[in-house]
Amino acid sequence: MIKALKQQVWQWLNALKLGGSVQLYLESELKNNGWFRSYHTKRSVNAAGNPLPWCTYPFITFIEPRLKKHFNVFEYGSGNSTRWYSAHVQSVQAVEHDEAWVSEVARQLPGNADVTYRALGETYVSAVAMSGKKYEVIVVDGRKRVECMRFSVDFLTPDGVLILDNSERESYAEVKGFMSAFGFRWIDFYGMAPIVSHLTCTTIFYRDSNCLDI
Questions:
Q1: pTM of the predicted model, to two decimals?
Q2: Topology given in CATH for the domain delimited by 57-206
Q3: Which distant-in-sequence residues (6+ apart) come within 8 Å of 83 by Cβ?
């Protein structure tokens, strides 16, 4: 009886031209990686509701197995990505320009992660220098991204990598030019990202003998 009912439902849906849409929702990779859940909740999460970086899925798939427990990460911009990185590395330090958002994020962070408020301007861009240490991974996904990319190079470990999200934007086009002059190569990870439905890109900038073994 149940099988017959399912067949009848599919017949109705196909008659309404909805069968393909329902199958996409039930069986596609969009469901498996949690995109539908992120889209409806407007939160960057996976299918189980756990935090994900708001970056492209190909980038997340690539970098996750390459992160190591001794890494220190710095983020321009914070949120679910801060929580996600903290589960994979030794420490995460993030900076934000929105005080209300800092309070919201800080309540959710584990002991090895921290977020700091800095007003937009020089103190925001230079926030990566405030700890006095260098980082294996620096993520630029906040404001003033071009300036932050330039400033951050000096705060990478010798094998460190820089990550620029939404790198397809025309306003960030100059980044690849000066990063090349600094001796970096890059890999573009185009694809969909949580929450949004358009194509976007996350780029990893790296040098020889880098910590991700690229």
A1: 0.87
A2: Rossmann fold (3.40.50)
A3: 51, 108, 109, 110, 113
